[in-house]
Structure formats: structure tokens, C-alpha cells
Amino acid sequence: MAELRVNPTRMEMKRIQTRYQTARKGHKLLKDKRDELMKQFLDVVREDKQLRERVEKALAEVYGGFTVASAVSSPKMLEEALICPKKECELKVDYKNVMSVTVPVFQLRVLSEGGSDSYNYGMAFTSGELDSSLRALSGITEDLLRMAELEKTAQLLAEEIERTRRRVNALEYILMPQYLATIKSIKMKLDENERGNTTRLMKVKDMMLQAQMTQKHDDEEEE
Amino acid sequence: MYKIAIIGERDSVLGFMALGFSVHEAPDAESAAKTLHTLVKSGEYAVIFLTENYAMQLEEELSRYKDLPLPAVVSIPGQGGSTGYGMNNIRSAVERAVGADILFKE
Questions:
Q1: What CATH number is given to the structural domain containing B48?
Q2: pTM to 2 decimal places
Q3: For the domain that residue A177 is a member of, what is the CATH number?
Q4: What are the chain B neighbours of A82 within 8 Å (beta carbons)?
Q5: Residue A87 contacts by C-beta under 8 Å, 6 or more apart in sequence?
Q6: What does the alpha-carbon distance between residue B21 and residue B3 come to, in Å, rounded to a whole number?
């Protein structure tokens, strides 16, 4: 692992050691975050999958009904029957915080004139299939919105998980080994210096002793 | 208060009129994309349903809105029945998050 280019000093080593500790703490926290996000995500996705299966099945039936309805009545009539709805949908959007990811929560409010199950056309010119498929359709409105909510949540969570995973990996496999390698190399260098110093001292001491000895020897000879 | 929109070919979306959704017909993918952009830009819609055959063709445009909290652009099967595109979306989300497909493995 490539180490950082820093001066091999004790101060620098201390600094990097602190950074390493911080990185380790951050790594642990992010890992926990990732695990929890994953748990939430899988819950959401499982529900979404079931819901989608149900909705797609229901929609297929609805379309079938419509096809029959449009076959027995003229397209113009069909459009006329549907074009001015009695109902109006409004959506209240709240936000929920899932592990610091903001996800929307939809609340449907249906404003309708007359009863909630009223059709917006007369019974005379339309077929019964239209009625039943419309009823089926309004039956899955809630499911449709819940599905939209879940799918959005899943997308947002997936993005966050991906990002968190990258961070965890970057810390674990790049940053932390880098710090460790740097600390180690600084330590080696310092030790090496220390040894160099000791040898130098020993050598100097040796030389001094030698000098003293020669001095003594010369003195003796002079006498 | 937000509204709900649906974009798709005529036969698929007609029924949603009665629900009080705001219905936008689109004869082809290009006009669907145009409608989608105007709807998103208006900021009035929290949920936009899009029929699968258009969603499939507009994947690039949709990915732009994927990471925003609103609007939720959701694909639903159209008149032609489910193509499995919606499920595929869920699968790709799982793959993106987990790194492997762990839900749909058979």
C-alpha cells in the first residue's frame, strides 16, 4: 500500500495516529449505518415486490374490462363518460427520515361530489364492464400510491446504501491501510535514526579512547 | 397539496380520468418525454405514473429523477399487459444496493 509522503518526524506520526483512530471510528459507524440501511431497504423492497405483483394483476383485469367496454360502446361515448370526473385526487406529501435519508410519504385525499362510489356518467349509454373496471381501478388507487411511495423509497435508499458502501470500502481498504503503512514507515525511520545515533556515539567514544591511548603512549615514550 | 398525473397511450390512461388523476395522453415516447418534463418542472405533481412501454424508452430521462425525493415517477403496465419492466426496476435497485440480486434469484 502506498504510504503518504510526510516528514518522518514524531509529530507527524502522532498526527497520523490520531487520524487513523478517527478513521477507524468512522468506519465502524458507517458500517453500522450500512447494515441498518440494508435492513430497512430489504423490508421496503419485499413489500414493494408483493404490492407490484398485486397491482399488475389487478391492472390487467381493469384493462380487460375496458377493452370490453370500448368494444361494446363507441370510443366517443366512452370518452364522454369519463371526461369530466366527479372525483378529484389530492396528495398530501409528508417526509420521513429513514437513517438520514428523506423519503416521501403520500396521503391520498379524494374529493368527490356525492358518495365516494359515484360514477360520473349516466347508466343508460355505458356498459356494465365499464362500471366494474372503474370500481376495480378505484379499489387499487391506494395500492398504486403506496407502491409509488415504496418504489421511491427503495430508489433513494439504494442510492444511500451505495454511497455508504463506497465510503466504508474506501476507509477500510484505502485510507486505513495507508495510515498504517505511513505510521510503520515513520517508526522504522525513527528507529533507524536512533540506531544510527547509537553507533555514531559508540564510534566517537571509541575514537576518543583511541586518542587518549595514543596520547598516553606518547607521553610514556617521552619520559 | 400535490396532484397525481398519468402519462401513457390513450387506451391505457383513459380509465384513470374517472379517478381524478390528471391524465396526459401521449401518442409516442417523444411526446411522453416532453409531457414528463413539463409536469416535473411545474412542481405540482408528487407522483407521475408512466406506462411501461414509454418508461422503457425513456430510461435515461427517468434516471434523472431517480435520486430526487419528488416526484416519484413510477412505471405501471399499460394496455398491452405487464412486460416485467417494473419488476426489473426493483431488481436493479436491489442490485445497486446489495451488489447482487438476492430477491429474484430462482
A1: 3.40.50.10580
A2: 0.83
A3: 1.10.287.3240
A4: 14-15, 17-18
A5: A110, A111, A112, A120, A138, B18, B19, B20
A6: 7
For residue B37, which amino acid is it?
H
Asked whether residue A85 is assigned to any structural domain, the reply reads yes
Q: How many domains does chain A have?
A: 1
A29 lies in which domain range?
10-183
Residues 91-130 of A with CB under 8 A from B: 91-93, 95, 102-104, 106, 109-112, 119-120
The boundaries of the domain holding residue B79 are 3-98
The pLDDT score that the predictor gives to residue A177 is: 94
A203 part of a folded domain: no
- Is B59 part of a structural domain of the chain? yes
Residues 168-207 of A with CB under 8 A from B: none
Cell triple for A110: 379524494
**B99 CB near a chain A CB, below 8 Å?**
yes
Tell me whether residue B106 is in a domain.
Answer: no
A3, A187 contact by CB (below 8 A): no
Is the residue at B75 inside a domain?
yes
Using the Cβ of B18 and the Cβ atoms of chain A, whether some distance falls under 8 Å is answered with: yes
Q: Which candidate from A104, A151, A159 shows the least CB-CB separation from B46? A: A104
Place B105 in a pLDDT band, splitting at 50, 70 and 90: low
E-only strand ranges, chain A: 87-98, 101-112
**Chain B positions in Cβ-Cβ contact with residue A85 (cut-off 8 Å):** 17-20
Separation CA B20–CA B100 (nearest Å)? 40
Structure ipTM: 0.89
Residue of B nearest to A109 (CA): B1
C-alpha cell at B56: 422503457
| Number of domains present in the structure of chain B | 1
Q: Which three cell numbers stand for residue A65?
A: 374490462
